[in-house]
Amino acid sequence: MTEAVIVVALLLVAASATAAVAVRDPVRQSLVLAVLGVVLAVLFTVLQAPDVGLSQLAVGSALTPLLLLLTVRKVRRRGQRAPDGPAGRPGREGGP
């Protein structure tokens, strides 16, 4: 019975990791990464490592995707502002 649960958890990890690599949109990719973190936490719990599972749940499925989402949001917001000069500074024509 436990071997079947381990095999199912490993297949879920493989499927979610493949999905995280295959998704092209950074926002969706971070959400799939959060799902991967939850599935890894379940795998660690099944493998009788609940302390590692709790750490994975906190870091892998909550903190890392949150930081990625915030980074994507900041980069997109910065990209929406059209730079006036080549260095992104208004009124400068690229010389020192």
Structural class: mainly alpha
Q: Number of helical runs?
A: 3
Weakly predicted, low-confidence segments:
none
User: What is the radius of gyration?
Assistant: 20 Å
Question: First CA to last CA: what distance?
Answer: 70 Å
The fraction of residues in strands falls at under 5%
Share of helix among residues?
over 70%
Shape: elongated
Count the strands?
0
Would you summarize the structure shown here?
With 96 residues, the chain is an all-alpha fold.
Written description of the protein model:
- This is DUF4040 domain-containing protein.
- This protein has one domain.
- The chain contains 3 helices and no strands.
- The mean pLDDT is 87.
What secondary-structure arrangement, pairings included, does this model have?
Elements (H helix, E strand, L loop, with lengths): L1 H21 L3 H21 L3 H31 L16
Please supply descriptive tags for the structure shown above.
Nuo/plastoQ_OxRdtase_6_NuoJ, mainly alpha, MrpA_C/MbhD, elongated, DUF4040 domain-containing protein
